[in-house]
Amino acid sequence: MQSVFLLTNSLNTGGMSAVVCYHFPKMHRSKPDFHLSNPNEQQRRWQEMRQYKPEQIVTARLVLEEIRAGGEVWQAIRHHPQKTGGYIPKHLLVAVYRLGVEADEWEEDPELLARIRMKPMRTLSGVTTVTVLTKAHPCPGECIFCPTEAKMPKSYLPDEPGARRAVQHGFDPYEQVSSRLQALEAVGHPTNKSELLILGGTWDAYPREYQEGFIQRCFDAMNGRESASLEEAQRINESCSHRNVGLVVETRPDQITPDQLAWLRSLGVTKVQMGAQSLDDRILALNRRGHTVADTLRATALLRAGGFKIVLHWMPNLLGATPESDLQDFARLWNTAEQGTGFCPDEIKIYPTQLLKTAELFNYWERGEYKPYSEEELIQLVADVKALTPRYCRINRVIRDIPSYNVVEGSRRSSLRQDAQAELAHRGQHCQCIRCREVRGQSVDVDQLKFDDLVYLASGSEEHFFSFVTPDDRLAGYLRLSFPNDGTPLTISPDLENAAIIREVHVYGQALAVGTIQAGVAQHSGLGTRLIEQAEMLARSHGFHNLAVISAIGTREYYAGRGFKLSTLYMIKPIE
Ligand code: SF4
Ligand SMILES: [Zn+2]
């Protein structure tokens, strides 16, 4: 007896009349036809399936059956090669799985879906990142290493992965966000929690009207409906099905002022990426950065006082630098306030200078005044700096994702991170940054987790990096708590009077769709609540009257459920 799974290509596809029937071995349940609740969704799924040949769908079913029976994903794929050569792509497995579930033929199985997902790495830190670019606009900077491309925001090349998508959509924020969410959903990524990463030169250089409109349209796309104002779009997002759990912009240190930070907060920004590039005034001047190291320190202290998460960009191999001077420069990032500085960024992007034709640095190179490091020098340097990175920082990148044919001379290796990791292993060292310790998809035994409080003095605050770590030192979750002190710059909002500030709560695990529970995944083990309770206890014992949190729009509900109330720019919980 065979159950029948009908794929009728004539359904809502605008004229295809052939009806194709596929017969499959018996499943849990079977239905003779195909029911989808939402007609738009139905149409989208059918359009998606039209790109596949019938025999591919049959093969995908066989692969899925083997996985459902307990087979290993890659082995199952290899057991069923396609007749035309090659193997079934994972996105087809996801599409066929979804059809089976929609047809009510298979039970929904989040664990199976997690296993067949195409690129689980993208969502393993707990949230999905949606990257968008702003339109071309002049930047106040004149940095000699920065490329200038027609019709592109400053510093971006039209063929970088994120930028290419933005160009395709004419830099329209709504189009960029909605197409990205659709693409992620099509391959099975939950998109109910996403971080919005806005790139494009210097955000603060854009007119405020543009900034506001841009973000409103991004929210509209997440909300799936139009709004009359940014405020309305934000309100809808608080409880919609695609929540914004982080909003990131990028800027320069000299743009950071209390007034600007209050503005960013009103837009919903939670994290700021800022180009430090070097902590040496001589190098900054040679490369015409147009700001000083003191500006960078002042800006990081202000950002921290405002509770923002701080991502610094740091560039080795600038004009005038050597591998030795770069190593000393990197070490300065981690000097504490007691040692005189206290940049201590939460995350860092290492962008070794890449020699590009449309940057002024190219002329220096042509005149013989600049020379990129060799591949080996760069690998050694990245290994050195990884070994120096403290446990509270996450190294997000060690190279910029530029297609290698744009690089005139110097390293074109995109595998720099792996090369540096191999070098570290060879030396018997390892990187302890957050990224290298995240639990990723691994199951965690909550009872085995150890709580840790790493304290350091940054400029303008005493920082507490709380974490839960597994017995083998994997990071299951963390919280950043700032205690303002005598060195804290004037706060940007009365909300923060006498308040300790939670700058980040992060618990790992595959980002799960609302209402699904996956065994052993850290996000659903109450770790976030436990971290917040610890923060409250410590802040109270330090004499603070309030606990503030810089909440993204889509996490307001989460904090409200833990006793916080929205004030003006922050959510506050009295803790006296
Ligand atoms: S500030 Fe940034 S975007 Fe502006 S010129 Fe310098 S590197 Fe380029
Ligand atoms: Zn690392």
Task: Summarize the entry for a quick read.
This protein has helices at 39-50, 54-68, 73-79, 90-102, 110-116, 161-168, 173-186, 208-223, 230-237, 258-267, 281-286, 293-305, 323-332, 361-366, 375-388, 416-427, 434-437, 527-541, 556-560; strands at 3-7, 20-24, 128-133, 193-199, 243-251, 271-277, 309-314, 347-350, 394-397, 450-458, 461-469, 475-484, 499-507, 546-549, 565-566, 571-574. It is of the alpha/beta class. It starts with a strand and ends with a strand.
Describe this structure as you would to a colleague:
With about 575 residues, this protein is an alpha/beta fold. It folds into four domains: about 5-115, no CATH class; about 125-250, no CATH class; about 275-435, Transcription Regulator spoIIAA (2-Layer Sandwich), CATH 3.30.750; about 445-575, 3-Layer(aba) Sandwich (Aminopeptidase), CATH 3.40.630.30. It contains 19 helices and 16 strands. The strands form three sheets. A seven-stranded parallel β-sheet has the order 3-4-5-6-7-8-9. Strands 10-11-12-13-14-16-15 form a seven-stranded mixed β-sheet. It has a two-stranded antiparallel ribbon with strand order 1-2. α13 (about 325-330) links the parallel β7 and β8 (about 345-350). The longest helix is centred in the middle third of the chain and has 16 residues, at about 210-225. The chain is globular. Mean pLDDT is about 85; it is low at about 1-35, about 120-125 and about 510-520. The site of iron/sulfur cluster has 10 residues, from loops.
